[in-house]
Write a structure and sequence with these properties.
about 100 residues, alpha+beta, 4 strands
C-alpha cells in the first residue's frame, strides 16, 4: 500500500474510492506515568510517552490501511495524522486520507 501526504501520485492516474480512517487511544502504565511526572522536574525526553505515541501511530496507520484494502485501494493520498489528549496520560491518534485505485 502506497501512502502519501500529497493529493496525487506522480505519473499515476487514480480513481478515488472514499475517505479511510484509523484511530486508537493509548495510555501508559500508571507506574511509568508517575516516573514521567518526576522526570518533568529535571527535563529530558519522556521515552515511555514517545514509545506510546510511536505504537499508537503505527496501529492507527495499520487500521487505515486495512480499511483501504477493504475498498480495493492501491494507495491512500492526502494522508494526515491528528492527535488529541483524551485525559491525563491518554492520547488519541487519528490517521486519515483518501483511498484510491490506480487506473491502467
Amino acid at each position: 500500500m502506497i501512502l502519501v501526504t500529497t493529493e496525487s501520485i506522480p505519473n499515476r492516474e487514480v480513481e478515488p474510492l472514499g475517505m479511510v480512517t484509523g484511530s486508537t487511544i493509548q495510555t501508559v502504565h500508571m507506574g511509568k506515568d508517575l516516573v514521567n511526572g518526576l522526570k518533568t522536574l529535571v527535563g529530558g525526553e519522556l521515552k515511555s510517552y514517545t514509545e506510546m505515541m510511536e505504537k499508537a501511530r503505527a496501529l492507527a496507520t495499520e487500521r487505515m490501511i486495512h480499511q483501504a484494502e477493504g475498498l480495493g485501494a492501491d494507495a491512500v493520498v492526502g494522508v494526515r495524522i491528528s492527535t488529541s489528549s483524551i485525559m491525563q496520560s491518554a492520547s488519541e491518534v487519528m490517521v486519515y486520507g483518501t483511498a484510491v485505485r490506480f487506473i491502467s
